[in-house]
Write a structure and sequence with these properties.
It contains eight helices and six strands. It is α+β, with helices and mostly antiparallel strands.
């Protein structure tokens, strides 16, 4: 278990969950400041995507598609407009929210209070982590969005997304996560659409292999980790 999330290894794990996270490409341990084990689910969505789960992970790990596929996202997180997955000069893998906002919303603004214990930079930034093998974690100063990736077949994946907030925030009068859910689901379904198109291309008899662009370091690292995992005796 880590931060309230349960991870199951069906074989003989070499390391504990936390030890294995020390070697993850996206450095998830830095998000322990969000105290996610204290958060609670305020909303859950389930989406069926007609694409292989690895296509979805590769898409998540690059942002070359962001300027054309996610106009709403790049408006609130301008770094993504450059095709970058994190901001130049930062070692925490974050990107600043336009106007110093703290919300995962179309404007970056939110009435939901910032979680306790976060720095000003953490509170006003957007973060994302692909946790090997099948989890996405997206955070701002006010919400943690956890997505389970459930492969159903070579061309079918179920995405289960939980929207996590502080329990006292959920219990407060007038709490409404609607703008967070609406924005997040918009961005997610934009990705699902292009992943389904990519799956159609992979299915083509003309397809042999893809290529890595200069900014594809994270997809490359994921693929190498996956290859090592399936080749391990």
């Amino acid at each position: 278990m880590w931060e309230g999330f349960v991870f199951v290894h069906l074989g003989e794990p070499e390391h504990s969950v936390r030890e294995s996270f020390e070697h993850q490409n996206d450095k998830p341990l830095q998000y322990e400041a969000w105290r996610m084990d204290e958060l609670r689910t305020a909303h859950r969505t389930v989406s069926e995507v007609q694409a292989n789960w690895k296509v979805l992970v590769e898409n998540y790990n690059e942002c070359l598609h962001c300027p054309t596929v996610h106009p709403e996202l790049v408006a609130v997180a301008p770094t993504f407009r450059k095709g970058l997955v994190f901001e130049d000069g930062r070692d925490d893998w974050g990107v600043s929210i336009e106007g110093g906002g703290a919300g995962y919303t179309a404007t970056g603004a939110t009435t939901i209070p910032v979680m306790p214990g976060l720095t000003e930079q953490q509170a006003t930034s957007m973060y994302g982590a692909s946790i090997f093998p099948n989890m996405f974690l997206d955070l701002t100063g006010t919400v943690a969005i956890a997505t389970r990736i459930l492969p159903r077949g070579p061309e079918h994946t179920t995405m289960v997304t939980d929207y996590l907030f502080r329990p006292e925030v959920i219990a407060a009068p007038g709490f409404d996560p609607g703008d967070v859910v609406e924005f997040s689901e918009l961005v997610a379904h934009q990705d699902y659409t292009i992943c389904e198109r990519a799956q159609q291309g992979v299915r083509s008899r003309a397809f042999t292999h893809g290529v890595y662009a200069e900014k594809d370091e994270l997809p490359y690292l994921f693929n190498e980790r996956y290859r090592a995992a399936i080749e391990r005796p």
